[in-house]
């Protein structure tokens, strides 16, 4: 009896975790594109309406950080545009050398 309850509990935990992942949804990303004034843009679109706008925003930011990280730079997030139909986040960012302050760039 005790083994059966433990097994059911583990099954319930696994099912709850899988459900959370499914409800979290996933995003499709556009290719990072270059714009004017050294700005880059990436779009994240929710695959299902169960993915929240904050989750899409976090996914877009992570994509920007990864893009700049491959260039050994850090992402400087500039503008965020959120849309609801379809659920989409457009993120505009720059890549800056790591450790450079905004004041140093202005001087």
UniProtKB/TrEMBL annotation:
Name used for this protein in its record: Lipoprotein
The record lists the organism as Herbaspirillum frisingense
């Amino acid at each position: 009896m005790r083994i059966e309850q433990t097994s059911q509990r583990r099954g319930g935990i696994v099912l709850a975790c899988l459900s959370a992942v499914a409800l979290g949804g996933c995003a499709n990303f556009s290719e990072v594109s270059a714009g004017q004034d050294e700005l880059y843009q990436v779009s994240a679109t929710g695959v299902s309406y169960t993915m929240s706008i904050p989750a899409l925003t976090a996914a877009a930011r992570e994509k920007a950080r990864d893009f700049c990280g491959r260039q050994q730079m850090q992402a400087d997030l500039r503008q965020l545009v959120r849309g609801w139909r379809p659920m989409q986040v457009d993120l505009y960012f720059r890549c800056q050398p790591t450790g450079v302050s905004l004041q140093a760039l202005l001087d």
